[in-house]
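Good morning,

Attaching, inline, the backbone tokens for the sequence recovery test we're adding to the shared suite. The designed sequence is right after.
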């Protein structure tokens, strides 16, 4: 009888886990399509405007239109830029809110957010490829975020970051639902945050150039991969850590 109850509990736990994952994937993938659709609309607006200032440009995104150029084109474009900044912030809040709804504690919230963000980002590019046949390759450059300054880089970089987020998030959720939580010490958290900061710095490294209308300089892969390695290795080392009273 006890063995039967334990087996039933395990099956229920697995069913709950996969239902949670299915919900996160469904929401994030649908949101990825919404994000791709918004970009399609924005490109239909700004591509003709870019041609006005950069008629000989072979890039679909660069050079970026500067704030001064938007002001020359009309005040409505500055308003649209501010609207876009608000939309980006709202996007992060929606992903965090969906993760919070699915979580039972802070660890699950972080894990669910990682899964949501990673799937949202990857499906965004997949849907863009389906809708407008862009990006043409993994090394195609994109503008990732505008807050607080433009983040730029080849789509391979955010793709790698998103895969790491999805993998670590799913593993954290799996361990939580099997009552085997991952305990991450403070110094490991510090290294993970440091790794993330280095990756963000790689995306923002060239912002003064791109924000002023310049074509992107070569991506800082050394900085990005250093951050990726520090974050991933610190997380993986936590999987083998046994908590002690000192933690």
């Amino acid at each position: 009888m006890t063995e039967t109850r334990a087996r039933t509990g395990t099956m229920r736990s697995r069913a709950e886990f996969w239902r949670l994952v299915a919900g996160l994937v469904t929401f994030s993938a649908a949101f990825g399509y919404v994000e791709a659709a918004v970009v399609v609309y924005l490109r239909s607006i700004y591509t003709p405007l870019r041609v006005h200032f950069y008629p000989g440009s072979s890039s679909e995104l660069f050079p970026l239109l500067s704030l001064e150029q938007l002001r020359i084109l009309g005040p409505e474009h500055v308003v649209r830029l501010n609207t876009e900044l608000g939309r980006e912030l709202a996007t992060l809040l929606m992903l965090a809110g969906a993760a919070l709804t699915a979580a039972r504690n802070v660890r699950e919230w972080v894990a669910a957010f990682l899964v949501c963000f990673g799937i949202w980002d990857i499906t965004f590019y997949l849907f863009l490829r389906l809708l407008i046949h862009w990006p043409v390759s993994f090394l195609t450059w994109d503008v990732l975020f505008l807050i607080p300054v433009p983040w730029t880089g080849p789509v391979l970089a955010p793709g790698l970051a998103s895969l790491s987020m999805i993998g670590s998030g799913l593993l954290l959720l799996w361990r939580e639902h099997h009552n085997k939580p991952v305990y991450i010490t403070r110094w490991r958290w510090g290294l993970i945050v440091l790794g993330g900061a280095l990756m963000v710095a790689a995306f923002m490294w060239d912002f003064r150039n791109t924000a002023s209308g310049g074509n992107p300089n070569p991506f800082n892969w050394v900085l990005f991969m250093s951050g990726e390695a520090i974050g991933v290795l610190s997380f993986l080392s936590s999987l083998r850590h046994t908590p002690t009273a000192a933690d």
